[in-house]
Automatic annotation (TrEMBL), chains A, B, C, D, E, F:
This is Uncharacterized protein. It comes from Melastoma candidum.
Length: 335, 335, 335, 335, 335, 335
């Protein structure tokens, strides 16, 4: 550990790529095809070891939809819209997960993929993790959806806040405004996160402040991946309508402007933010930056005050119904 | 599962038929013959994929009997009545189960059949499940008999509350007033029930309120099957006497008025209730209604609060005597 | 308790009144004035001992609002709308709670009042309980808001699911679609609820089925109180706009049709449902009906199977931050 | 331990009295008055140290009633009958329990009393235990009612099968046909029972065989107390009707013939059986008979084969709803 | 099984005979000859389908012997006495077993025979079962010898507590005071025993109470067979001496008084008890009595509380030495 | 509070000023004079209701000092430097605190002042709070000094993390890199902080990201005050030397560049950052922005998951020595 060689080892560098691209909306097989093309390009052109996709890349982020809901009312059109959205989601595990795992193995990359997960009839905004050997590692379910998302997605519990210790670093993810939750971030800091993935749907410039802050606070690399969507990436009306917006209705009008970015543990922007279009955004992550940054500030180490401030994370699964016989698990495996 | 086609698949429709008919009392072979005629008709006339029979169709519901019991007393006539009732029940597995399985296979329907099960000298009010390939799938034993039923039927345990994942949907059953048990229903919701069968002996109009409520609560189709019995469906006195009733004693007087009904997950009555006579009651179940309804309310998904309220289901078998050698099982197999 | 007289005592009768009326929207003092007028009338005209108001009577149910929210977007108008709604809510305890307590004492009634509770900057849909001596007894916070309500109201925890043992019976409340939650209902059954209040905002006829079912399931009286609102009960545009509705925009058009109802433990409708207008709906509750009904079905007594199905209620308060010194409680007292 | 004196100590003798008498039906205060008169007489005339009353002495055994129940039907008269019966039952703890405790203390006797216990709206057939200092010791709830009793009484769980170690010996109770349950008896043998109380409602001569067998099997004294009731001990019709009996309807006709008996561990009948009328039946219990009998046969000692046959008693309370906060216990304390 | 005829079948009747007779002591071939004579008579005179012999009929019950044992001492005479007793016992399987099987086949009866089994140098008090086709079915070894029996007999394990399902009913056996063991009896109840054989050596009148109790408890027929022995049935002194008795020493003095009895499931004595002499005691067993009795009380069915009280039977063979190669089974076949 | 007027009240506006200025180093009285001048100006020119000073304004931030410390060594010069620094600090309470309180009262402002607090021979980096009536409210001690600060300042405990509920809003403070501590921030969020003061010594541009993030995360106004220091603000060498810097040594060279800023709850920069020189930086804080922002994200309200993630704050004083007599409290009053 202390030889010159080990120092070199500690200072290993990881090539990472963020995918900034749009879902093929309501067409999950085509979305998976697109994911594979992007993954192949990241591997071939950039030699990436780690590829991070945006929130809800598989299944889609139904921006501008209302699902027919107002306070105290629903519509049958909104219910049918949900049925279609539900049908586009994927089971975990399931055939789409198998395909994603195979992709990761084929291109030899660690893959972090935002999906809409179907568990019975409730959906979750989930991030899946795969290793470069083609194995599914586990998942993170968004613990708290934002605003109208709360009517289409359920709430993850404490059992799916993983950090995976991999050869490319300790990897985890928080989704969109979860990144604003200080206790959730601290839970991941407590697990030693080094490569903090932040798949998101927030393309406002103010988002960059939070990404920089988290890199400093956590002493970790932050990789924020957002979709870049134009109107034409969604089905045409009446299959899809944008509610409550007075924006440009032309097919090329930008619906989600991206802003994907890679930031170092000392707060340096390594790549991005990109607000131009679909793109692969890559950077070399010098893992030696982590101890350099933690020397200043180690949020769960020398800079913590555990005798004053302590966080309790209830990370056992919570289910409305549990069966004492072990074999019944209708909701699929937990990581 | 997630292609546009799969959305169409999710919206698949199942033709279901409820049988509203009477047992041939004290004549189990004749009852099975009648079951077969009804099944054949459901398949031929309605093209049914799923057929649900009432509670205790095989073995019979001895309405109006007292079995000679008062508080602190019994009669030898009552004991003899029980002996005959016991003799009309069926073993599970056993030859009658084999015949029912063969019927389901012959007509290519999923079959849900209420029976009186004999396990040694205790009887259970049981529902049997068969697939359209002619296989016996398993059984549900009523967990809590109502009122005087407690002197003729035993109590099922947690090991026989199955929900079967079939091509026509996830099927289970609760019998008569079991349907009033919120924790039992929730156990089935937790297993993902989609087609909730409610074989019953309750023909009061108030029963409809519970059926509608369950459809809404569970976000599932509810199929409630009741017998329609006239006095003449029972043996003449003194072989059979109705106690404590001042009803019409004519052979055509109605003893059980049916009320069988099919309700959608959003609470719409699709067929029935029928209070007129023996009948086959059919409806098309659009399974797409389930996600539409669950969008509003998913009792074990987005509308649950598992960290506050959690149900534990002890679903291992409970037996007064267990033998450590595996092969001794005098009471027949468990599903 | 056990003399022949006590049998008469058990059969005591309680006069109860449900208020079906509209909030004075965005004017909390005027709403409290209206509450007092209605309470006075219930006491004077009907001699009521128990008066139940609808969900969100104080603070209002902002039907038809969207608060400017679509998936992935918000508007500043929506945020301002929330600020006003937040300003109309009440702290618990606080001066409005004191006024309500004084009203209950003045008219000598047990009072169950739906309010919007302000706890810092999060709101809760809450029911307050007061005794006829003018004491505040405690509160129930809705544990799970429905659909768009999830963006304006927080989620109650297990510490506010009270049942109060009073001289007019054991009283508790579940709000609107909480009534569809079987485990929540069972928690209240487990506390022995006898007078089950169901303040609601659901005026569909299908709501009646659930109310009847709950009365049967719980063996309790069900008192469902809903608002009756016309368009003119809300401020005129642009102060208030109804989104996504193609309804009659005349001032007298009905926005919420009521349907308040009182049902006995055996499922008999004692008063209502009223879909005509603002009204006081009264009935005599013969508490002797409870043992008569429980003889048939006691959901947490003789009809339970606790060794198979058991519900765990985590009824300790859950807070994101707790301070080990006892006196710091920024969110107000818990019952 | 081994001195001659200790042998004398071991051979201590206890004076025990069984009360064979009738409830004052539907009049619990009068029944308690009668209990006190009988207790006073047992203490004064016989110097009894231990007095055992029959099953359901307080609350009553409604022999010959049907509560209007037939298979599939109920009557409103039956429900009202239950309401009255429910009103005659007692809460545990409660004022009647306090009175019984005071009686035991006043007359300085260990008291074993059969009661009907009211827990919410479910009743239990319960035996209460009191010490000679006037303390309530605990209770046994009948675990399995017989026949029609199952519609009026709930089922006790494993937490109320106590054996109390007292200066007059180790005392417990099994009620009526519970005495036929070999596993329940063995649970009490396993707790070291020495004075086995068998309050009952079975006056058939065949009952004596079971009492003798239990004395031999358990190596314990058996004290079986039954009521002696005449028709006139019940209210006159229509307040009370005997169903399904062709017996003598005169006021003096015997409804329950007693048969109370005291048997030694070696199977000797020490007093009774008495089939003549109300009576106090007394005997001296030479506790030295217990080791003499166990020398022959010690059912849970030298004559057990625990490596082959072992009984598991789940003696934790089972409740349909549990609250994680300790203080909520609507059902009263558990022994 | 379920036709009206099957009800008749369920009510089938079995003719059973108990043999009350003495071993020809120390002469096993003569004892077998005597057995055959008695069997022939039972078949010819009574048309018996089932014949039950007493405990230790083959090999003998050495009543009155001490085998020279006092606390802390033995004698060489006692050792020689054991050698002779050991020589009179039989191997299982072995030629005497073959002869017994042939007898059963010849007379077409189900045969239940008490024997002394020799397994190496340890003896067991065993009951053998044969079918009417002349097949040996299996054996029961007494699990717990009484008092001094413990110096001449070993202890059976849980692998030899069989219940055989035969055309004449489900048959098993418990020997002498094993019948006092509630867990052993429950093991047999758990296997569904219908014809409960109780070969014994206890001729006290109190034995009848236990037999009646077991019939009621188990809901089964009880057939208790005892030897009737006079002094002259034993060899004359000094070949055989009775220790510690001051009885009549005349050759005709009764050493064991019989008391064999047949009891129905409802506790009715069908034949016996006979205390007069050697005899064949016969009765018709109406198997319909079993469901009639179980209607009242089904010890392992509707009257069990398996979730509270559960018996575990370790019914695998236990041997002091086991060999990992599968084929070693020195003790003969297991049922 | 709930009238339409109260909505206006909720939208009240507060004028706030940040002081960006330098300590008069090693001259505490002169520093207090300077503080008063700045305070007077803020009140007079801007009408400020709230004035916030930088970290260590009184006592000074000894930037560039090493206090003679290297790993394993100290120097006597460093010790003397600490003696002088210790002498410039102030006791709390004490005469300087009284003077500051008087100033606040004189100018009618809420005052938040960074000081170096002397507690015996340990110093703390502390913020003092005063109300506009001239009352000292309490203090916050920096809980975790950064890097070399750890050799001159002690660590604050959990008892000095106050949030004061004042007419200008709920006010608290975190000092410099404490602002990076997510659990400390959450403790203040849990107390309802609305005006979050961040006195600092960090003038890097990256600091702005954290300030913006905190405003969003906490839904609060953030007021970050830093000193603006030139070389000449420190004593000349050798009285003061800057270690390890190759910077411009001219008197006007900037040692600390300020960057003070005011940010709204939605992340808008209201004033600053100023990197130009000493300045008063002012803005109007529209408190209505808080509910508008919390509608989106309420970190301890609707966006928390307390059942998964909960922070425990041990906010009792921790002292190395406590005296059991109650009156000992050497550290001054606690909030």
């Amino acid at each position: 550990m202390t030889s010159p060689d080990s120092a070199a080892t500690d200072a290993r560098t990881v090539r990472a790529t963020i995918v900034q691209a749009s879902t093929v909306f309501y067409d999950t097989p085509a979305t998976l095809d697109k994911a594979e093309r992007l993954l192949a390009e990241a591997a071939a052109r950039y030699g990436s070891q780690l590829v991070v996709f945006p929130e809800a890349f598989v299944g889609g982020y139904p921006r501008g939809s209302t699902f027919g809901v107002t306070i105290g009312n629903r519509t049958s059109e909104g219910r049918e819209q949900f049925r279609k959205y539900h049908a586009s989601a994927i089971n975990v595990p399931g055939p789409e997960v198998d395909r994603l795992a195979a992709m990761a193995g084929k291109y030899g990359v660690y893959l972090v993929m935002g999906v809409i997960e179907r568990d019975g009839y409730t959906l979750y905004c989930t991030v899946l993790f795969f290793d470069s050997q083609g194995q599914y590692l586990g998942k993170h379910r968004k613990t708290m959806p934002t605003a109208l998302e709360r009517i289409i997605w359920g709430f993850g519990d404490g059992s799916t806040i993983p950090v995976f210790d991999t050869p490319v670093g300790k990897i985890g993810a928080a989704i969109c405004w979860e990144n604003r939750m200080p206790l959730l971030r601290t839970a991941m800091y407590g697990k030693g996160i080094e490569i903090y993935c932040a798949p998101t749907a927030d393309s406002r410039s103010i988002w960059q402040a939070s990404m920089t802050h988290i890199a400093l606070e956590g002493g970790c690399f932050v990789l924020s991946a957002n979709q870049f969507c134009r109107r034409k990436d969604y089905p045409p009306p009446p299959g899809y309508t944008f509610a409550g917006t007075e924006e440009d209705h032309s097919p090329d009008s930008v619906v989600c402007a991206g802003g994907s970015v890679i930031i170092s543990p000392t707060g340096n922007v390594l790549a991005g933010p990109n607000y131009e279009g679909e793109a692969l955004i890559s950077a070399d992550l010098d893992l030696g930056e982590i101890p350099r940054a933690k020397f200043d500030f180690d949020v769960v180490g020398h800079y913590a005050r555990p005798e004053v401030l302590s966080l309790v994370v209830r990370d056992h699964p919570t289910k409305p119904v549990t069966f004492t016989s072990a074999s019944v698990n209708p909701g699929g495996p937990q990581p």
